[in-house]
Design goal:
It is a single chain. The protein has helices spanning 4-15, 56-59, 88-105, 130-133, 136-154, 166-169, 174-190, 204-214, 238-248, 261-277, 318-331, 344-353, 355-358, 381-384, 389-394, 431-442; strands spanning 38-43, 62-68, 78-84, 110-112, 157-163, 195-201, 221-225, 252-256, 283-287, 335-336. By secondary structure, it is α/β, with parallel strands linked by helices. It has a 7-stranded parallel sheet with strand order 4-5-6-7-8-9-10. The chain has a 3-stranded antiparallel sheet with strand order 1-3-2, with no helix packed on it. Helix 8 packs parallel to helix 9 and helix 10 (261-277) runs parallel beside helix 11. The longest helix is centred in the first third of the chain and has 19 residues, at 136-154. The termini are far apart. Bound molecules: zinc ion (ZN). Residues 257, 339-340 line the site of zinc ion.
Length: 444
Amino acid sequence: MNDDSGWSATLIASKTGQKMGSSPPLPIRCGPCEKFWRFFEFPFLSSSPGGHSPHPLLASNERPQKFSTGGPPALKLPAYILVCIPSENERVCLEVRNLHREFLRAGSDVMQAFTFYASDDKLINRGNEAGIKYTGSDINEAACRIAREVANEGDALVAGGISQTPSYLSGKGKKSVQDEFRKQVQVFVNNKVDFLICEYFEHIEEMEWAIEVCRETSLPIAATMCIGTEGDLHNVSVGECAVRMAKAGAHVVGLNCHFDPFGMLKAIAAMKKSLETAGLKPYLMTQPLGFHCPDNGKQGFIDLPEFPFALEPRVCTRWDMQRYAREAYELGVRYIGGCCGFESYHIRAVSEELAKERGKQPLSSQKHDPWGEGLKMHTKPWVRARARRSYWEDLQPSTGRPHSAAFSKPDNWGVTAGSDELKQQAESTTNEELQKMFAYNSKS
Ligand SMILES: [Zn+2]
């Protein structure tokens, strides 16, 4: 037990639930992960003057504490080390909670539970084992609980979201698709979320089915599609989609994901016009990408060759986000957020731009001066000269990539629902199937 391998063995033993020795202290709940403190026995360690200090891995865990049985050190009486060793799931919960917290401090008024794509049919699609290991309900339940815990720290709202399903793309029909939605919505109702979001739909028909299920509750409904100025994947215009979402019963309508902030605002303007013509007045909502994608096609950034793992050169600056927030507000959008690529500092930029309208600054602005004014204390004089709005507002940032083109060539896949490639299957994609897919990348 007194060498490093002994520590490892003990650690493994604790993870598998084995306990060594007898009469360990009673387990107590852990504050951060709210599970329980695991305990195990390390004879000779804390009570021996020549004993090892805690293993670095253990020392890095949450709230390590040592308990000695007392007595003369020379007797080397057993000691118990009570230490929280979160399981992988518990660690993920902690990280999710901290992610919510980061956005709360950046000014988010809504904690959107991480329930995106968490329908049972998606969680068993193409080798995904999440639906077998857990269930959609378990995942949605945990997401709601964590979102509420953090929301309560800052008086924020909690929203539960449903999104497009593999069942729709597989052509399984209205009942199957709505059954998937209903299971998620039931969890949201049980967890008393403040409102529902139907997001990331690219077929207005599926969106209407989703809103219909949400209307079985008494909760407010926000509905956003991941489409642009070219309309949905069945060629229904973006304006018509807005009208159909409002008529289906959504209280807030708009767009999310797939398009950059400024491309999205163009589509929102078209939605607004159609809604006004139809005499409808729902609230408007935007949750664009945090990437510049003026070159994307109808399916947005997923058609870009850089999607999803090489998009970083396209990241918007905080100043881009201030411009987005102002333009969205002036267009009449009152639910202004972000989707893929948005980091918490982007949300802080949105919050700071609209601080006057909202009557408050985000918490994290306590350590962030507006428009680079914190640079007044910079050592270098030419950097101090950047402590002003006009510098950052007028800047045209370089990419630092001499071989980069300004635009990429999108794949323009163009397939909607019902094609063989889009059908749901539990089995992982085979190498042979993958080979066939390669052709899509080379056709553009
Ligand atoms: Zn997104």
